[in-house]
Amino acid sequence: MSDILAQSLRLPCGIALENRLVKAAMTEGLANPAGVPTAALERLYGLWSDGGAGLLLSGNILVDGDHLERPGNVIIDQPPNAIMHQALSSWARTATRNGNHFWAQISHAGRQTQKVINPNPKAPSAVKMGLPGGQFGEPVAMTMPEIEDIVRRFGVCAAAVKAAGFTGVQIHAAHGYLLSQFLSPRTNLRSDQYGGELANRARALLECVRVVRESVGQDFPVAVKLNSADFQKGGFAFEDSLQVAQWLEAAGIDVIEISGGTYEQPKLLGAEGIEEEEQQNVALSTLMREAYFVDFALAMKETVSVPLMVTGGFRRRAVMEQAITAGGADLIGLGRPLCVVTDAPAKLLSGALELPRFESQLAMFPPWLTFLNRSKTLRTLATFGVQYWYYAQLDSLGVNGKAEPTMTVFSATRKVMSQQKRWLAARRR
Predict the structure, then answer these.
(1) Residue 61: exposed, middle, or buried by beta-carbon count in 10 A (0-12, 13-18, 19+)?
(2) What percent of the chain has pLDDT over 90?
(3) From CA 281, how far away is CA 105, in angstroms rounded?
(4) pLDDT for 28-81, tens place per residue?
């Protein structure tokens, strides 16, 4: 057994996590058209609760039904009625049936809301997504009352999940969603108290933290997912992230999860893997290069003492152990491997050396079609096609209780797109 990964971790609020392995947040798309959790979503989290992680993070739970991250999101944009509360409570009971923690990731998509959901989503400023394909519409700058209302909704959502039996919350301020948009000078062009200097751009996030903490109390875990950087010229930089992390620590945050990228620069989707970097520059290669954001976390540890979680790229147990012993992470987030091997944390804790990879199943185009890689549009489609393959695995786990790893990217994409179309049609009725 790995003693390092099996160690418990006590958080600033006083609660303890049983071990250092976390099932990272992954969008599930398994709510019904009213945004209510379903039996399939419950079944999926039961499998993960049986899987050995000390903490499970939910996928995006949206605080605004007009600004979804994708069709199928759970939506808590008002105090829950009896049906919603019962569904949330049943989900939480199943997701914690093995004594692990289950935290709700609460979010607002902002301008990263697909056009089929909202052709004119609200955002800090009217800066349109720079992606091919026309999937995203023209955003509209939020008014001050609208910002205040969204902050309020974060508190409503946090209170609702606590009442339902969730054991913590994570505020999503990364990956280009609304709070991340406020932080970035590329997407926040405001000249009022929510724009300009970093303190103003961080105001919406810090107000959400304050309202959420007031809603759940001092002894309930509150985490934040924060970009280390946007990886875009003129965007949210690592120096900004360090400062925001210090403000979050002062605000009483229990965990900061380090991530990075946006839809426009999708480091989070694995579009630019660390292994490729290693092949190009072997002299700089280290074990921890497998984990995308450990280097950022190591630097952040010099300025904050709040526990840090790192997600992205982890496969080998030795890398996870080194990240913790070197001080680069307190918690290890595992994502894509758990879309097929739901008990991957238990396997690691029992001595497994490495988690599976699925590159052979994810070959979108034959290697000889190298000219396709020169097209930004096709590269974008390939990246999201791979993402759809993982979506399809979660759907299969929830519906059938088992993954379908032999499914092709093309068939997974067709399946997911068809499901999303039906979900949207049902929601409009």
Answers:
(1) buried
(2) 73
(3) 36
(4) 999 999 999 999 999 999 999 999 999 999 999 999 999 999 999 999 999 999
Cα–Cα distance, 397 to 405 (Å, whole number): 11
Residue 413: which residues within 8 A CB-CB, separation 6 or more?
A: 385, 388, 389
Task: Using alpha carbons, select from 235, 221, 287 the residue that is nearest to residue 263.
Answer: 235
Q: Tell me which H or E stretch contains 166.
A: none
CATH topology of domain 3-354: TIM Barrel (3.20.20)
With beta carbons less than 8 A apart as the criterion, state whether 17 and 103 touch: no
- For the packed helices 376-400 and 409-428, what is the interaxial angle rounded to 10 degrees? 70
pLDDT category at 365 given cuts 50, 70, 90 is very low
333 DSSP β-pair partners? 22, 311
Could you give the CA distance from residue 1 to residue 73 in angstroms, rounded to a whole number?
37
User: CA end-to-end span of the chain, whole Å?
Assistant: 53
What's the pLDDT tens digit per position in 370-427?
A: 444 555 554 555 566 788 999 999 999 999 999 999 998 889 999 999 999 999 999 9
- Spatial separation of the C-alpha atoms in residues 68 and 427, rounded to whole Å: 12
pTM across the whole model: 0.90
254, 11 Cβ separation under 8 angstroms = yes
Long-range own/partner contacts, residues 403-406 (CB < 8 A, 24 or more apart)? 403/339, 403/340, 403/342, 405/340, 405/358, 405/361, 406/361
Q: What is the pLDDT of residues 249-275, one digit of tens each?
A: 999 999 999 986 566 555 444 433 333
Kindly state the DSSP code that residue 77 receives in the 8-state scheme. S
- CA–CA dist 297, 314 (Å, integer): 14
Treating both helix axes as pointing N-terminal to C-terminal, what angle do 82-95 and 39-49 enclose, rounded to 10 degrees? 20
